[in-house]
Here is the input.
Amino acid sequence: MGWWLRFKAWARRFKRDGLTLWFAVRHPGTPLFVKLLAALVAAYAFSPIDLIPDFIPVLGLLDEMVLLPGLIWLALRLMPADVLATCRAQAQAWMDAARGRIASWGGAVLVVALWLAGAAGLWWLLSQRS
Here is the structure.
């Protein structure tokens, strides 16, 4: 059962770090590049829609298992230490108080817009070939 407890602790840290990015986007001390990266990662992490659908074998889970943790790690590494500490404390306090989920409508709208733009582009490309 030791592995299960380690996995649960990792999952809690993963959620906290995602929330940390959410707070970092609003923090005035976060550099612009890190804000943009954090905003994209947080929107994707909390979005109910995946860029790679989960029903696609192997690739469907690749974004949750590799891409998302890697992007979160990168954004946290690029963040100044004082901003990271402040935002982590805010994220932990929010998790302790709310125990809820963030509904990222902005992220969902962004992902849906990207999917629709991709579908429209593919439709246009295919219609030009015939």
